[in-house]
Write a structure and sequence with these properties.
Layout: H1 3-16, H2 20-28, H3 35-46, H4 50-64, H5 67-74, H6 82-93, E1 100-103, E2 108-111, E3 115-123, E4 126-131, E5 143-144, E6 154-158, H7 166-178
Antiparallel strand pairs: 1-2, 2-3, 3-4, 4-6, 5-6
Helix pairs in contact: 2-4, 3-4
Length: 180
Amino acid sequence: MDKALQTMIENMPVKTGKKLEDWLEILKTKSFEKHSLAVKFLKTEYGVTHGFANTIVTLSKEKSDSPEDLVLNQYSGKESLKPIYDLLLSVVENLGADIVISPKKGSVSLIRKNQFALIKPATKKRIDLGLKLKGVEVQGRLEHSGPFGTMCTHRIQLQNVSDVDEEVINWLSKAYDYSV
């Protein structure tokens, strides 16, 4: 955690009258559509300064996002891609019981001993499937990693459920096998 944020959290009881955990409990009882509405609520109802209100609301979102929420947020406005994601997960779950599925804010990491794949809704019409396949040449639909940089060695662009074909499943399986 950044030092300035840590200091702010430590000073919160003195400056706002409540600890961060207390503020998070208060926000749990409310449902705000927008960040700004929650900030305004804390400022008007409790007299919290803007800086503290903004920090409290930001931290409440980080703590409240379940893995399911993270995935739903990734596909908000990109709902047509969710069936592709669901199919990829069913393929992955059949590879082995030792896989950890780890949703993050913008992607989902697939981890065995190490991360072997990454699923990211790249645009409103495309999912990028990042794969770690060291020593494998670019071929067929298997491209250079592109925006994944060093997180993955390759990527495959998927626009339809039908794109998750035998070739994609084989590459995903190889990435899984290489991750031991």
